[in-house]
Amino acid sequence: MIEIRSCAGFEELEACVQLQVETWGYDASDVVPRKAFRVAQAIGGQVLGAFDTELAVGTGAGRAESLVGFVFSWPGMKTGEGQPRAYLHSHMLAVREAYRNRGLGRQLKLEQRLEALSRGIRYMEWTFDPLEIKNAFLNIHRLGVTVRSYLVDFYGVSSSRLQAGLPTDRLMAEWRLDSPGVQAILGGRPTPTPLVEERIRIPASVHTWKASAWKASQAGREQALAVQLENRRKFQEAFSQGLAVVGFDRDAEGNGVFALGPLTQLEPD
């Protein structure tokens, strides 16, 4: 059984630090330290953990040792048009390898949403790598985020093995937590078919190319980089023309396909 709740105490926060290293292979230059998690909790952020209660009982492990996933956000303030509004920037989500592909990442995001709404926070955002097909599918298809901005090399050099030495290009996910569209998607109800003007494809093999690049394969890095640069151009051009990501799916070969349509289809903030 999996219990999702706010992490409590230094040991559980330290378990989040260790899971970062396990997931991304971060070195000291990239890892978020325990103190930062503690500060985020103190100022209105979230550090929610997923704990395997059966693991804890079966092995005699403590609560911290049973942590199998976590999600972490910082509080922020939007100061654009109208009155300032509080929001959350979800910086990190990790799930232990043996617990992946079970929907646990989605469960953590849903718990984030409920906790935010309980405090009157209606908007959340986060970045994600446009080359990671599983992440895009979760964010867009299963959570209902929209995307209208492309961030070039947003984090700079990264020690993450998942990044494989590529520029840290990111898309910005915008999650309107209580919008009709998001509520329909989360509730499994049909949504209006969006107008699609362009599609951007991510080959399924990019995951293999990135993995080989991390193992010092120059050919793998060049193949992945070529896709990244070509799609960077396509996204930037589409966004400059007033398009936004309005859907995502996978084809029969496992390739990821971003659907882009007019920005006017997005629900208002």
Give the tags.
10 strands; 269 residues; Aminopeptidase
Number of strands: 10
Spatial order of the strands in the main sheet? 1-2-3-4-5-7-6
Determine the CATH superfamily. Gcn5-related N-acetyltransferase (GNAT)
Strand portion, in percent?
A: 25-35%
What is the CATH third-level topology name? Aminopeptidase
* Count of helical regions: 8
What is the overall silhouette? Answer: globular
Q: Rounded to an integer, what's the Rg over CA atoms?
A: 19 Å
Distance between the termini: 37 Å
Order of helices and strands: EHHEHEEHEHEEHEHHEE
Give a quick account of the main beta sheet: strands, pairing sense, barrel closure. 7 strands, mixed
Low-confidence stretches: none
Work out the count of structural domains.
1
Q: Structural class of the secondary elements?
A: alpha+beta
Write the CATH architecture name: 3-Layer(aba) Sandwich
> At the first level of CATH, what is the class?
Alpha Beta
Share of residues in helices: 25-40%
Mean pLDDT: 93
Protein architecture, described:
This protein has 8 helices and 10 strands. The two termini are 37 Å apart. Strand 9 (243-250) and strand 10 (256-262) form a beta hairpin. It is 36% helix and 28% strand. Helix 1 (9-24) crosses helix 2 (34-42) and helix 7 (206-214) packs across helix 8. It has one domain: Aminopeptidase, CATH 3.40.630.30. The strands form 2 sheets. Strands 1-2-3-4-5-7-6 form a 7-stranded mixed sheet, sandwiched between helices. The protein is globular, with a radius of gyration of 19 Å. With 269 residues, it is an alpha+beta fold.
